[in-house]
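ingest -> validate -> predict -> emit
validate: passed (alphabet ok, no gaps, 325 aa)
predict: started
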Amino acid sequence: MESHYFQENLHVRTYAIRRLLLMVPVIILVTIAVSSLMRIVPGDPATLALGQEATEADRERFREEYHLNDPLPVQYIRWWGDVFRGDLGKSVVQRTSVSDELKQRLPNTLELLVLSVFFTALIGIPFGVISAIKQNTFLDYFLRSFSIAGLSIPNFWLGTLLLMLPAIWWDYFPPISNVSFWDDPLANLEKYYLPSLTLAIGSSATVMRLMRSSVLEIMREDYVRTARSKGIAERVVIVRHVLKNALIPVVTIIGLQVAALVGGSVIIEQIFNVPGIGLFLLNSIFARDYPSIQGLVLFLAVIFMLINLLVDLSYGFLDPRIRYS
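emit:
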């Protein structure tokens, strides 16, 4: 038994190391693509940073300071040299370190994502299970219609409605200023619950539909029929035998939705004035802030691949039959 446990742990570690090594070429390809494509987009970073009134001499000094006149391969290699020293570069707009900006804005984006995933699971999983249990009833049709509506409504449009309609109907405006959760939890949650709910609606609709299909499929399995024939209560059958197995594909989708939520948060952070990574990335793209864009894309790519790895590793916990050999 101990030998089998040790061997399985060894397989898990080998699988994780292999996946981590495969991340290296992916990261290199992503950063090369971003570095190249951003230079193709029209716009001069020196002009955008200094303004139209700046002289050509000022722009030239700016380009020399940030090495913008160097060939692209030289800029790319120099940037990797900074990354290996723990520096993601210096923002040409903020005139500060990208790493410092990331540290300052990361808690805001993380809180937005955590609340969004919480709302996604809170809405999608129970409603998906209820829809499957009440198959072809009015409640099932209603929940399926709700999920289709959630998939059809764009996040930016829903966010605008959630911002404008309470202001029109009840003169309610969410807080504009950002308050730390540790300073004032209620004011902080009042700032973040609307953008989090906006991001969660579409994701929860996807989870709900997948959860319904997964539960219906599991409920037709022989071991579920056997459990019912033994007289086990339906609630126990659903919780012990159906729910855990049905969560495997749902966990995959939720993990992938985290990456989608990062992308969606770019617009949502702008609508709700959340000073997070998404807003920083959007402003950097508008300003052709190459170091900031490259640093943020590198960070987001690593986070995305690590989340996928953790999701894959969670399969063994949800279903012990899964092996990583």
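The first helix runs from residue 2 to 40.
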